[in-house]
Amino acid sequence: MIDRSLWDTKNKYTQGLLKEYDYWALEVSYRQHTLGCYIIFAKRSVEKISELKTEELNELKDVMREIEKTLSKIDIFKPVRFNYWQMGNSLHQLHFHGIPRYKLLRSFDGKKWIDENPGSIPAWSKIDVGHDLVAKLRDVIKPCLPGN
User: Fold this and answer.
1) Among 13, 15, 27, 36, which has the highest number of CB atoms less than 10 A from its own CB?
2) pLDDT, mean over the chain
3) Which pLDDT belongs to residue 1?
4) For the residues of the chain, what is the DSSP string, one character each?
């Protein structure tokens, strides 16, 4: 069972769980910098990449590979590449922001999604999208992940 309090201390972000792994949890991000953004959270209390055990690093590669393959085969996503950011400035629990990158406009849930800088640093949104949108993204992605 996931101890979400490691990264969601106020139980505010409840709709995004895509898949639980042995060492990681994969969730739809409440900040959709580009369409399909996700976060990979370490399930144990750890702050630095250098503190990861070999088995955690190996599984992290598997998690990244699975979500990349999954988004690449779903027609509404099909990103041209993936960026990862790991900063930990305000949340001191190890996590990676996955940001799909697009050259062309995407549409989802009646909204147009444009990657403003497809060949450069992604635009960083500080605005949370609603639970409904996160749940809709989860419901499109989750059934396509291996093991779901």
Assistant:
1) 36
2) 92
3) 66
4) ---GGGT-TTS---S-EEEE-SSEEEEE-SS-SSTT-EEEEESSS---GGG--HHHHHHHHHHHHHHHHHHHHSTTT--SEEEEE---SS--S-EEEEEEE-SS-EEETTEEE--S-TTSSPP----PPPHHHHHHHHHHHGGGSTT-
Residue at 8 is within a domain: no
Q: What is the pLDDT of residue 54?
A: 98
Q: Within 10 Å of residue 68's Cβ, how many Cβ atoms?
A: 15
Judged on CB neighbours under 10 Å (0-12, 13-18, 19+), 84 is exposed
Note whether residue 9 is domain-resident: no
Average pLDDT over residues 47-70: 97
- Its pTM stands at 0.94
The CATH number covering residue 115 comes to 3.30.428.10
Q: Has residue 129 been placed in a domain?
A: yes
Q: Which two tokens stand for residue 79?
A: 């990103």
